[in-house]
Amino acid sequence: MASAKKGRDLTDWIPGWMAMDETGTKSACLHFFTSPSSGLKAGSPFEVLTVATRSKDGHLVLREISFKPLGAHKVPAPEIGDVVPDQTKQAWLPDLFENIYGKSEIDPLHLQEFLSTAVIRKILTGHVVALHYSSILRQRQRNRAIKSGVTEKAGSSFAVQGESITRATARIFKDLQTWGETKAAAVIAEAEGVTATTIHNRLQLARSGKYLETPGKGARKKSI
Predict the structure, then answer these.
(1) How do beta strands 46-54 and 60-69 pair?
(2) N or C: which terminal CB in the chain sees fewer CB atoms within 10 Å?
(3) DSSP symbol at 156
(4) Model's pTM, two decimal places?
């Protein structure tokens, strides 16, 4: 995985479409595999739907993952270079979200037995990054499109009301690790456009404040 120093725009991981309900506790993402650069190694293009819920204790729970032929959900794949997920509403969303709690929780780490690390990272890491950083990515893409030379600042846009940046970083870090990301700090740094050292400093503060365990590595296995 690339380090934050290379300034990647996370194109490899961001889903092409996402949606959230009004409460922010339910989210869905579509991940498109249409070419070698987007993860398609052979066969026909396809798309993957992931649906998650946020529990009362803040835990991000994977509820659904399904593989369908490209176009099955009638959502167009994004243009090349577009890293901002489309957030248009779809007619099938209400039924999807209404019935989501009837589906069992899926342990993301169990997917390692069936899917490669690259595919899991695109699907799971992509969902978490889009969930927390879509507004930052949108501003970054807008700045690049108009070649303004402006460097967008993440600020505290990824924090919920009343939450410190340190606590928000710890929360997102735990989401990524729970979903199997082994290099969560580097992913956060890339999403925010800051150095990995900045993120590690925040995590150290979070551990000192006893709201992040010391230390915890993700359990994603390496593909052979």
Answers:
(1) antiparallel
(2) C
(3) T
(4) 0.83
CA 63 vs. chain centroid, Å, equals 15
pLDDT digits (tens, 9 = 90+) for 51-80: 999 988 888 999 999 999 999 999 998 877
Q: In angstroms, rounded to a whole number, what is the distance separating the alpha carbons of residues 150 and 172?
A: 26
- DSSP structural state of residue 214: S
Q: Which residues contact 203 (CB under 8 A, 6 or more apart)?
A: 169, 170, 173, 185, 212
Distance of CA 66 to the CA centre of its chain: 17
Q: Backbone phi, then psi, for 32, in 5-degree steps?
A: -105, 130
How many DSSP H helices and E strands does the chain contain?
A: 6, 4
What confidence tens digit (pLDDT) does each residue in 190-199 have? Answer: 888 889 999 9
- List 52's β-bridge partners, or say none: 27, 62
Sequence-distant (≥ 6) Cβ neighbours of residue 52 within 8 angstroms: 26, 27, 28, 60, 61, 62, 63, 127, 131
What is the residue extent of each domain of the chain? 4-208
Going from the C-alpha of 81 to that of each of 32, 38, 44, 69, 178, the distances in angstroms are: 13, 11, 21, 22, 29
Cβ atoms within 10 Å, residue 19: 20
